[in-house]
Design a protein that fits this description.
By secondary structure, the chain is mainly α. It contains seven helices and no strands. It is elongated, with a radius of gyration of 18 Å.
């Protein structure tokens, strides 16, 4: 069963990665960088503070940062524990795919997917009552995560698990935030 899942994962990667077109390589190489998304991060922080009292906004931001740190710790821990080679480093598959980046750390689960889905989900959970359009933010992790397949550095299953982990962490930390009373609350 596990071997069949791995085979499906490889075949799906080969198919999705094979859809790549050289004219779009620069676009996906830019999309995959965290720095490209800095204006989006600043917008989220701005929206956290806009139309909210300072103490509540700071309290929300503290849980946001704690969540991001926890996700980063989980990513590093699981990647080193599982030790799955990235497609670009796996000799069984790297000759069959287009490779545009060559990271050398491990693949499972995708840090890009986990971090972007956690950030987007937490933003939606915190801001949906004030900004109904905030759900559009999910376009970012979808593009960000797909870029990893396009570049040949993640399997689809790495992305799927990373997305689920990210969403899970967002719900966990939002739940903690709501349960733990802010030190200033009545």
């Amino acid at each position: 069963m596990l071997e069949r899942l791995r085979q499906w994962d490889r075949e799906f990667l080969i198919y999705l990665n094979g859809l790549g077109v050289e004219q779009y390589d620069v676009f996906w190489s830019v999309v995959t960088k965290f720095g490209t998304w800095t204006p989006l991060f600043l917008l989220i922080v701005f929206l956290l503070f806009w139309k909210d009292n300072l103490k509540n906004a700071v309290w929300n931001l503290i849980f946001y940062v704690l969540m991001i740190l926890a996700v980063g710790f989980a990513i590093d821990t699981v990647k080193n524990w599982v030790g799955r080679l990235r497609p670009n480093n796996d000799t069984e598959i790297n000759q069959l795919i287009r490779i545009l980046h060559t990271p050398h750390d491990f693949s499972f689960f995708s840090g890009h997917a986990a971090s972007s889905f956690s950030i987007a989900t937490m933003a939606v959970l915190l801001l949906r009552s004030r900004y109904p359009w905030i759900y559009i933010l999910f376009l970012w992790p979808l593009l960000f995560s797909f870029s990893r397949i396009y570049l040949g550095v993640h399997y689809p299953f790495d992305i799927l698990v990373g997305a689920l982990v990210g969403v899970g962490f967002a719900f966990l930390f939002d739940n903690l935030r709501r349960r733990i009373k802010a030190p200033y609350s009545v």
